[in-house]
Amino acid sequence: MYNHSAKYSQLIKDEAIRLGFLSCGISKAEFLEEEAPRLEKWLSQNHHGEMKYMENYFDKRLDPRLLVDGAKSVISLSLNYYTEEKQTDPSAPKISKYAYGQDYHHVIKEKLKALTYFIEENIGEVSGRAFVDSAPVLDRAWAKKSGIGWIGKNSNLISKNNGSFFFLAELIVDLELEYDHPFQTDHCGTCTRCLDACPTDAIVAPQVVDGTKCISYLTIELKNEIPAEFKDKMSNWMFGCDICQDVCPWNRFSKVHDEEAFKPGNGLLDLSAKELTEITDEVFKKVFKGSAVKRTKLTGLKRNIDFLKS
């Protein structure tokens, strides 16, 4: 009997690239043996801080078959968001590149819907679920397992060809496919640029980030006041942080994305330090319409800006 899995895998990968994904790798849906002790230790050291949702669904995070009945394959995808555009006022509070355009959750979900539709049209009925970092799925572990890249010292997934400025997403399906080889080599070598550059010393060991010290966590996930110990250590970031990626030598291979939805709009990059310091509800709604920045709400963004200025 002819095995269709190789043909189906190629069809899916070709369509993923056509839809604008940067890369697509496929791995077998099984228990993540290596990740279990790592995740347990990270949680026990409270590196997740207020992200209590990380404690939920521990088993599901490690076994996709508990998320999708009869799951056989995890299709991992990456989507580029790298840009060379910058905020025009160098003294303005900074925003992470990934939030310049439309909220990536919506953009990627639409592409995953289209990919699922393609699979059903060309291969047959498939049962599965799409995930965009909002469910108990260890994106980086699956991306590494499917050959997309390795996990760098800053705990981001890094690709030799594309650096690390990309989002990760998955389709977990009950379809038998041909599996890629896991990415085995760590190409960080003796480089410690990300560890040395982090102003809050959040990277406590290679591949281990203490979330409670990370500027991204402090400006987005943390709902309480930012602790005084981080005064003058935030490097003027008001939403997210790109430092450990900006200094990574592999990001010299990042290419500018061509995703229309990720292009900055509504005058976002032109906001001056003064305009951001005095931001009103009206300006916030106009500039950040459909943006990931809405997660912090105006009160959160104001808290961050006030902390930087105080």
TrEMBL record:
Cob(II)alamin binds at residues 61, 133, 154, 157, 168, 216, 241-242. Its main location: cytoplasm. [4Fe-4S] cluster 2 binds at residues 198, 214, 241, 244. It catalyses: epoxyqueuosine(34) in tRNA + AH2 = queuosine(34) in tRNA + A + H2O. The active site is at residue 133. The keyword Glycoprotein does not apply. InterPro entries: 4Fe4S_Fe-S-bd, 4Fe4S_Fe_S_CS, QueG, QueG_DUF1730. Pfam families: Fer4_16, QueG_DUF1730. Pathway: tRNA modification; tRNA-queuosine biosynthesis. Residues 179-208 form the 4Fe-4S ferredoxin-type domain. Keywords: 4Fe-4S, Cobalamin, Cobalt, Cytoplasm, Iron, Iron-sulfur, Metal-binding, Oxidoreductase, Queuosine biosynthesis, tRNA processing. The keyword Transmembrane does not apply. Its EC number is 1.17.99.6. Binds 2 [4Fe-4S] clusters per monomer. GO terms for cellular component: cytoplasm. GO terms for molecular function: 4 iron, 4 sulfur cluster binding; cobalamin binding; epoxyqueuosine reductase activity; metal ion binding. Belongs to the QueG family. Monomer. Catalyzes the conversion of epoxyqueuosine (oQ) to queuosine (Q), which is a hypermodified base found in the wobble positions of tRNA(Asp), tRNA(Asn), tRNA(His) and tRNA(Tyr). This is Epoxyqueuosine reductase.
